[in-house]
Design a protein that fits this description.
By secondary structure, the protein is of the alpha/beta class. The chain has a 4-stranded parallel sheet. A 4-stranded parallel sheet has the order 6-5-7-8, with helices on both faces. Helix 24 links the parallel strand 7 and strand 8. Helices cover 50% and strands 6% of the residues. It folds into 4 domains: 88 residues, Alpha-helical ferredoxin (Fumarate Reductase Iron-sulfur Protein, Chain B, domain 2); 48 residues, no CATH class; 146 residues, 3-Layer(aba) Sandwich (Rossmann fold), CATH 3.40.50; 124 residues, Rossmann fold (3-Layer(aba) Sandwich), CATH 3.40.50.
């Protein structure tokens, strides 16, 4: 790691793109400041401390600094490596059972229990398994500081879909990595993909034994757990001989794309992880680049909208894990531009981070909200009816932002595929036209990323 740290020239380009620094204007909050401190740790001139732990945690891992770095320093990997070292020093960090202890000991107020409701019960009563990243995403602070708490799907997507799984053998074998957020909190985005692919007659294979992608553990520094989860998913998906593996959550997709980096010292596992990463595609990219579905959408007649009705004003937010992590910006917009009855409006500062950043939202909630406020101001300028984004973390963040600004009931939040599904639901595609769609032609998994 030391060589990579020393490549940083302290030029300050990262200051121009860092959402945290642009909020606090503190040198320690920008990449070059963190790398200087980590270099001192490597040199042995300073030691880990509570203050240094806080500084290393004050990073969204959005990747904007690495993207702009003229010296090509992999800043996010360096900061992540620091978190791993810290996790090892602390021998596991803070207990995951703080929520459970608080409930058992009666320390939670009635207001928190009422607000948390089903989600609290699901986490504590093992309805959500320990392997799910939601246990890291929703500690006690999540329920005490937020004004909104997402509802839990009492029948998770994977449980509901299992009896319906049908593989008809026609066309490429398409796998679906669901992810914890889509499984438990936003199943509508998972069902939207199922219905869209069913609409065109494609086969979708959803392995029931898949587990969390491991990103929440990874960003907290727990690389061991992240590797174990990755190994499980590799075994599950590798055995299915798939042509493509789709995700609907940008965070899960970005992590799958970089899966091989978890196994740098394990060649066999690294190769298997690289194979999974090569087959991965964001679902929206698959629909546009491999199915040409945006072209079909433009021919769909809007249903149920009286003549003269104003179009639905939709503002799209680029998740960092999609824009930077996977290099995808156009596919979601092409889909939305093609949805009948929808007017895509572009907010100022496209690409601006929403401030969620996984556990950053939990560890530094007030700072996360300040970053969100800037993004909400951008959206309010274009007066959308709906904010759409392709990441479960961003969906949680904007739901909170809408509530805090008194816009509940005025602005909706959803995944782009949910709008696509609503558009095609009343308009079944003729069977003969299904065969004309490229999904039944050869699939090249290295395209469109």
């Amino acid at each position: 790691m030391k060589t990579d740290l020393n490549r940083c020239k302290r030029c300050g380009q990262c200051m121009s793109v860092c959402p945290v620094y642009q909020t606090t204007f503190r040198e320690a909050d920008v990449a070059r400041g963190k790398l200087a401190l980590l270099e001192s740790i490597e040199a042995g001139t300073i030691r880990w401390s509570g203050r240094l732990e806080e500084i290393v945690s004050r990073c969204l891992l959005c990747g904007a600094c690495a993207q702009i770095c003229a010296s090509r320093v992999e800043t996010t990997l360096m900061i992540q490596s620091g978190r791993q070292r810290l996790f090892e020093v602390k021998k596991g960090g803070k207990s995951r059972n703080a929520l459970l202890r608080s409930m058992r000991e009666g320390h939670l107020t009635a207001k928190v229990l009422l607000k948390g409701g089903a989600l609290l019960q699901a986490l504590v009563c093992k309805k959500i398994p320990e392997t799910s990243g939601l246990h890291l995403r929703f500690p006690l602070s999540f329920f005490t500081e937020r004004s909104t708490v997402p509802p839990i799907a009492w029948t998770p997507f994977l449980d509901a879909f299992r009896p319906r799984a049908v593989v008809n053998g026609e066309g490429p074998r398409i796998g679906f990595f669901v992810g914890c957020g889509a499984n438990y909190l936003f199943p509508d985005m998972a069902w939207a993909l199922v219905h869209i692919l069913g609409y065109v007659g494609a086969s979708l294979i959803v392995p029931e034994d898949q587990v969390c992608c491991g990103l929440p553990a990874y960003v907290s520094g727990d690389t061991k757990t992240a590797r174990e989860l990755a190994q499980k998913n590799i075994e599950v998906f590798e055995s299915l001989e798939l042509d493509a593996i789709l995700t609907v959550c940008a965070s899960c997709g970005s992590h799958l794309k970089a899966l091989a980096s978890l196994f740098a010292d394990h060649p066999s596992s690294r190769d298997a992880a690289a194979s999974i990463a090569q087959k991965h595609m964001d679902a929206m990219t698959f629909l546009v680049d491999h199915l040409g579905f945006d072209v079909h959408l433009k021919a769909v007649e809007p249903a149920g909208s009286p003549e003269g009705t104003s179009p639905l004003r939709v503002a799209y937010h680029d998740p960092c894990h999609l824009r930077i992590g996977q290099g995808i910006t156009r596919a979601p917009r092409r889909l939305l531009e093609a949805v009948p009855g929808v007017q895509l409006v572009e907010a100022p500062h496209p690409g601006q981070c929403c401030g969620h950043g996984g556990d950053f939202n939990l560890s530094h909630f007030p700072l996360s909200m300040k970053i969100l406020d800037r993004r909400m101001e951008d959206f309010e300028k274009v007066k959308p009816d709906t904010i759409v984004t392709g990441c479960t973390g961003c969906l949680l963040q904007f739901a909170e932002g809408i509530s805090r600004r008194g816009l509940s009931g005025k602005i909706e939040v959803c995944h782009p595929l949910v709008l696509v599904e609503k558009a095609i639901a009343p308009c079944p595609i003729p069977t003969q036209r299904r065969k004309d769609l490229p999904v039944f032609q050869a699939l090249h998994t290295d395209a469109g990323q």
